[in-house]
Amino acid sequence: MNKVYACIDGLATTSAVIDWAAWSARRLSVPLELLHVLERPPELPHVGDYSGALGLGAQEVLLQQLSALDEQRGKLAQEAGRQILQNARDRASAAGVQQVDGRMRHGELVDTLLELEPDARLFVLGEHYHASSPRRIHLDHHVERVIRAARRPVLVATSDQFVVPERFVIAYDGSATARKTVDMVAASPLLQGLPALVAMVGADTPTAQNALQDARHILQGAGFAVETTLLPGEPEQALPDLLPSQGAALLVMGAYDHSRIRHLVVGSTTTTLLRLSTAPVLILR
Length: 285
Description:
The protein is built from 9 helices and 10 strands. It has 285 residues and is α/β, with parallel strands linked by helices.
């Protein structure tokens, strides 16, 4: 686990993905690998679908033309990919990354990341379809598939602008996954030096207060300045409402637990918290 992988595609969040990946690589003191995956384009309809009146000769001509177009499209995609990678290298180097490389791969993004996973410390990718209201139930399929499949941490850039984080907020519910998230934050250099806010949503009970104090003690023991907050209401409403008041913050959360936080991130029907977050999201496993 000795690289940060930045998944870049030339779309709106690419610059932010590069900047977040560069920031992460510097703080983790590991190389940065820029990754551009050329996924298989949708297949064109069979030439016979264009008209039932086409003769064999006309079909052969059209098939040759379609083949030529497909080849040209592939060459253009590769050239665009090379330019994207070169621009990304220049941007990452300008951001102070000492070891930066790039590669272009053919295939599916998730399959590629799983292949590279043994050498990965962190994956960084962009969210292109940010939700504007709780009614939107679909997350960018690339983001959701990576989160579901990857066993390494994933940092999702939720906007096309990178801002150096001034603090981080841990979405906490006292579960085993949440406690593991706190342990991982405490043990990693990625967020060292940033003040922490541990945010819990639910009833103000002794159990909840004790869980918050446990998280505070772990982080304080690792040298973090820590605050805690216990918010009333529902997590899918309270946590997104909290984030804008935190300035340049990074939201940190765990994945794959049977708690309510788990269902907010990678549930079968909703990904509310990740979709509505105004802050970039770091998902730990």
